[in-house]
Specification:
41% of the residues lie in helices and 15% in strands. By secondary structure, the protein is an alpha/beta fold. The protein folds into 3 domains: 171 residues, Aconitase, domain 3 (2-Layer Sandwich), CATH 3.30.499.10; 88 residues, no CATH class; 116 residues, Aconitase, domain 3, CATH 3.30.499. Strand 7, helix 8 and strand 8 form a beta-alpha-beta unit. The radius of gyration is 21 Å and the shape is globular. It comes from Candidatus Nitrosocosmicus franklandianus. It catalyses: (R)-5-phosphomevalonate = (2E)-3-methyl-5-phosphooxypent-2-enoate + H2O. GO terms for molecular function: lyase activity.
Length: 386
């Protein structure tokens, strides 16, 4: 891989150990993906924040790279393990280790968004801009809807890009790789966010390519459906982009019908009921909080309900009076964290939960070992409110 003189100096350690580590990560990835060079990015979104996921080894790495490393571009941050303003009954060790991770990112100069939906919080760059997103739903949505360019980055590669301001020029960063080689032909009438999440999960699992075409789907979807579609694709496989398009007769096609939808849901739906309702994987933005508020008018949940959203969204909703109204409906807000991989929802406390998210369903099943009743928002409210 061809490096500039400045990049070679950074790699050699002339500008410090933190920058050298970052370049070594990117060069290794670039060589593995046959990248010819590094290209500039102007925004990175970093994962690897929750102590539950990175553990002590990840914490030690962050401490090391933050000794003299600094981010060189705008850098947002994925959710951590809990809400600092709504502290649960977690172990002292977990809280202390989680805050050490937060401090390391602060030392690096990362913006503490603690959100998996940075595209709803940060100013968007111009179309075609190269970015580096580690969060899978954000990467898929950036490529597919926001007209940005990113690969599905790992926690390490996105952090390395944040520090260097560069990324390997490979895969979805190259225009010719952003055209579908296979199409999903949707034969279903998709009614809600869960239907789109199931379609996305099927597409991501079925098509292990950079980009998939999706046919017979509206080109003007509301944000909740787009997020569900992107999160489904990002959860189940390596696909990093979708294009909603008319069918191209020259490429391979895969049918998605009632049978495939049922098989997909049966894989993820592992319970008939649950002890807890959760919304927020990806986290909810203002539009979704508004929709929830409208659906809940004059109703109250009959089971505990946790809503995960970014702190900035929570504060905006609070100023509008939305949070107070939703809390009266039985909602418990949790900011800074996400449904997935959080220590706030464990097998010790819950045998099963109820959610509208295919991403939450997948991770609850595989990581938290908790069963899930997978249900759309409208059906949750119909069944679990009075």
């Amino acid at each position: 891989m061809l490096l500039t003189r400045e990049e070679e100096k950074g790699l050699s350690g002339e500008y410090g150990e933190g920058l050298s580590i970052a370049y070594r990560i990117l060069v290794a990835i670039g060589e593995a993906t046959n990248a010819e060079k590094l290209v500039p990015i102007n925004w990175a979104h970093v994962s690897g924040v929750n102590y539950n996921t990175i553990g002590d080894s990840g914490l030690e790495f962050l401490k090391k790279i933050s000794t003299d490393g600094k981010v060189s571009v705008t850098t947002s941050l994925n959710p951590m393990g809990f809400d600092r303003d709504n502290r649960p009954d977690l172990s002292t060790e977990f809280i202390e280790k989680q805050m050490e991770i937060v401090q390391a990112y602060d030392k690096l100069g990362v913006t503490p968004t603690f959100s998996c939906i940075p595209y709803e919080l940060m100013p968007l760059p111009s179309e075609g801009t190269q970015v580096s997103f580690a969060e899978s739903n954000a990467a898929v949505l950036a490529n597919s809807y926001l007209d940005l360019k990113t690969n599905k980055e790992s926690a390490l590669s996105a952090l390395a890009s944040a520090i260097t301001g560069k990324a390997p020029y490979s895969d979805l960063r190259i225009d010719e790789n952003r055209n579908p080689k296979i199409e999903i032909i949707n034969e279903m009438e998709l009614e809600n966010e869960l239907d789109y999440g199931l379609l996305g999960y099927f597409a991501g699992k079925t098509i292990q390519k950079s980009c998939t075409g999706i046919c017979n789907v509206s080109n003007s979807l509301e944000i909740s459906k787009l997020k569900s579609l992107a999160a489904g694709i990002g959860t189940s496989g390596s696909c990093g982009m979708f294009k909603i398009q008319e069918s191209d007769r020259t490429i391979e096609k895969i049918k998605y019908d009632k049978v495939e939808m049922r098989k997909t849901k049966d894989e993820l739906n592992t319970a008939e009921d649950g002890q807890l309702i959760t919304f927020g994987s990806p986290q909810l933005g203002m539009d979704e909080l508004g929709q929830l508020h409208t659906l809940l008018r004059n109703r109250k949940f009959t089971k505990p309900c946790k809503v995960f959203c970014p702190k900035t969204v929570y504060c905006k909703a609070k100023n509008m009076g939305l949070t107070e109204s939703l809390e009266k409906c039985g909602v418990n807000f949790i900011s800074d964290a996400c449904t997935c991989l959080t220590p706030l929802i464990t097998r010790q406390d819950y045998d099963s939960i109820i959610t509208n998210s295919v991403k939450a369903s997948y991770y609850m099943k595989t990581s938290n070992k908790i069963s899930v009743a997978l249900t759309s928002t409208k059906d949750i409210i119909r069944k679990y409110t009075r």
